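Below is a typical protein record.
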Amino acid sequence: MNDISKILILRAKIIRNKIYAVKRHSVLKICVVWLMVGAILAGTYYVPYRAFLFLQSMGYLGTFIIDRLLYLFFMGLFIMLIFSNCIICFSTTFKSQETGYLFTLPIEYRTIFFVKLFDTLILSSWMFLCFLIPILSAYAVVRSLAWNFYFAMIIFFIPFAVIAVSIGSIIIMLITRYLSVRLYRFMGMAAIGVFIVSAAVIIFMGRAHQEAENEILFLLTNFIPHFSFSQFAFSPNYWICEGLLRLIGADYKACIFWWLILVSNALFFTQLAVFIAANIYYDGWTKSSFACVFKIYLAGKGFLDKVISRATFLTPQMRALILKDLKTFWRDPLQWSQFTIFFGLLGIYFTNIRTLGYENILPFWKNIISFLNLASTNLTLASLSVRFVYPQFSLEGRRFWILGLAPMRRGQLLFEKFWLNGITSLIISLSLITISNIMLGVHLRLMIISELVVVLMCFSLTAICVGLGAALPNFKEDNPAQIVSGFGGTLALVLSLLYIAVAVGALAFPFHLLVTEQISQYLFERLLLCAGVFIGLLSFFSIFLPMYFGLRALDALEL
């Protein structure tokens, strides 16, 4: 039995033990989590199902758009998979303590890399698969497809995900081995600067004014022409879409052909990644683990030290904690680069709303797009909060006792992380939603209300992640991806998504009734007031309860 088989068998036993460990949790806790997961998956199915039904009602044009949406969907999925794999691969392959242990064993470097590649594939793809299944199931129901489509979408997704994880691992290996941290930071800051300048140019230049008298004309003139870039014949999203569409058309030979293209490319990129790992993986791991930066850090002399020292309204303990977290964040390019990537993509979309012509569509669609933009901003914030804010307590690990012995109450540590992460997310999210509303040209009332909701959501989502992170810490794990994949991270994600869905839905409901002229202005104002009170109460409990349980857990924690 070779080394890979032994390690994978060990992985299987670990997974089995974790499944058995679920029995130690209370039945109520397990039922609540699964009910929430079921509700999220049901919503993931229902929303695209209604959208596909609407497009299907347009006849041949609707069917054409639905099929072309598959190309766009898988293109976005492939890009997100590559980003996700880059991030998870770095923490799993280079920063995990297990990696250092494996390098001390008589095992080839490529064997260690292959095992870590398998771990990355599982950690990065399972959630995408969970959301892919209900969306494609909704597509299959609307198109009245046979049972073999459900089987095929899993079979096609596996090599599709393997290609993404191989490309992501190659990118992160090359960056870690050949790109210094200082150069990486400089490139990141330069990219942020280019984005800001480009966004300003797009905002002030605008576009030629085009009216879209109805949704059909809007689709024909502004939407469908942008499909072509997602149908590049040499990209994996094209191969998987062609295979599934050939299956729908009962052309099974062509379907198998496209699946074999995916499989062959998955094998090629995997072999290429293993070949590269055999030559540079160990050097890259050594550089990332033991790299020395010849720079003398003098206390109080840095830029951050000078800025934080001027915040005299904060206690010395709070200033020290804020400075520690900011420096930890800045010294890890993996963290701030992910924020830049995800919020940068949203910013690029928002600043290009005029290019797509969304500001000239009917008020009904403008209202829907504005709330979808609000939801997408907060969903991105929720995913990043769960990924980075939730593991902050757990990542202190065995060093947490140092903070526990510091001359301060433990509650100060909790509130410092709450305010720092909440204000940071507020600055980014508020800027994005303001750009979105300006580009869409929404009414001033909707703009102000949506920005107030963003304020509540930023602090609510931060409280959920900070509170649950303190209440359910995992000090034995040093990999953020595995911390998030645990029970507490899953619960935080489910609660965050449920909170966003309920809050955005409650706010969108009265505006939808007003735009469709189903209620009067007087009744709209009353419904809007009720929605505001409901969202306020929901946000209050979303902040109070997690922070309360987090404080109790910290006070009871034995160091």
About this structure: Confidence is low (pLDDT under 50) at residues 206-217. The chain has two domains: 38-198+228-295, 332-559.
